[in-house]
């Protein structure tokens, strides 16, 4: 799936266009870059040279500058590849934003392995799990470029700490964004939570199964109320998480939501037990991690029959 709208817009293009509009509309908004995407922000930089800042290949400085801007009352949007935005400058994310009690919008591209040929340095399946070790983060994982527009605009209006995770992958159509799960299909045998760009694959994989399918473009805060309602309406308290990043990232959130309900959880995502060293294409990684339609279908089918 291309992650494109009918006009061919990608999530990254939707982000760049929306950020440009926000720069024009709101004098608080600034965009901080670390070389990545500097070319596509060139027009915005000419219009707003004091609020589009390229620090070069210095990712720790990228986050530090965003923290400093936030301390002055600005609303910084920091952007680069996921491993360079969350993993490499994690100390600055923890201290310059979290410990100082200020917010920023971190917008990543690359997802888990969008640029498969870039190798392990450009893969980041653990980014959401890593941010999960810090309090107070809102995490959006859109499944369509139109969702990116809405989520970024909402984030820019707040002073919260927000992570917006973009990918080349995506669903055929957008769904309304919000903090809660959307019920896209109801069933009795299990509740399947599909996060962001894996939704279409989950719907195809469960087409003949008697399961409820919930969709989430926002995973933090986790919609415990929505999950409980769906589980309690089913015949079995079985939950399948299908996340496009590290398998089991949201298992603890499911456990907390269902602490008083005996339940089972099957977590699907990027495998924890292997590191793929053959670059290949993103589809090859999906298949190896069981995140293609066939892999998702086989594992959900086995789980619901157990």
From TrEMBL:
Tell me the domain of life: Bacteria
Q: Which CDD domains match?
A: TPP_PYR_DXS_TK_like (cd07033)
**Transketolase-like pyrimidine-binding domain location:** 9-174
Q: Which SUPFAM superfamilies match?
A: Thiamin diphosphate-binding fold (THDP-binding), TK C-terminal domain-like
Tell me one GO molecular function of this protein.
Answer: magnesium ion binding
This chain's protein is named Transketolase
